[in-house]
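Quick one, T. Sequence first:
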Amino acid sequence: MPGFTFQSTKSLLMEPGASARIGELVKALGCRSVLLVTDPGVMKAGLLQAGLKGLGQAGVAVTVFSEVEADPPVHVIARAVAMARAAKADGVVAIGGGSSMDVAKLVALLAHGDEKLADIYGVGMVKGKRLPLVLAPTTAGTGSEVTPISIVTTGENEKKGVVSPVLLPDWAVLDAELTLGLPAHVTAATGIDAMVHAIEAYTSKRLKNPMSDALAREALRLLGGNIRIVCRDGANIEARHNMLFGSMLAGMAFANAPVAAVHALAYPVGARFHVAHGLSNSLVLPQVLQFNAPAAEGHYAEIADILMPGKGNDAASLVEWLAELPVALGLPTRLRDVGIRETDLDALAEDAMKQTRLLINNPREMTQAAALGIYRAAL
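Structure tokens:
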């Protein structure tokens, strides 16, 4: 058996109500003052209350940065770093979605030393250390709490990644109660995002390994078996817990067996048209799978057997199942549904080809002409 490496978050805490224990966790890490990173929607929903109470009880001072935007641009990260430094924060906490966790990772790094964000884009470019870091997701989607990746919007229409094990937090706190209030359309889009993580990890051309495979399979079993339930009954705490667990496992999988063309083609959709990341993935997923099928047919058949046991065990069945899922969940299913026109597709394909960090993992070689064809099929 060929050797492999595997990295993930050092410690996990998963139980309903776990966010109330964030204070004791950061205090045990030696923190006396933390920057809490979140977004306006999470604040408005009252999801910080348990965490803030626990931090207060632990005697940890808190400064809240609530200006996180979806697909966070560079200037948001700069403001958060400046606030952390002004508060003399010796730790960073995030309670929020993937964007909040991505910002928190970079704040923990950049507020600690003198590295510059522009110098660390790419894989393995981080040289320094970070502040203690605790991440608590409020969606079952990105898996950012267990990945060494932070995605930044640079310029007007481009995303770049910072990838380093230094970004893995000290604690991932998974509290299903934080996800109970998610609207059905957000639950659906983030859930499909997590499924894409598992699917692409399972078929990645680079670094796929027995550990990532095992995690991806279990993630797909949990996510596929619960996504319809949580979209229909958002108060089902068991299904919410299972989705959060599945999202985390998928995050562990793709952190080690990286994602590929679905994400590469989704990023320009999000950057140019401000479409949420999970929905961007969903909009191109069936078409990318169809393109990849000649090179990944066996793996797709195995995934089909997980998602629909006894009902389909080939690549065509998987593509059909995943094309029907967003319809059943009430999501937009065509690029034109989010304002994209035929005249936009050349620019999208050109931008997609810049995602070389992702495209090298795709099971089938992606060309600009092929990307354009996929966008046309998805229009």
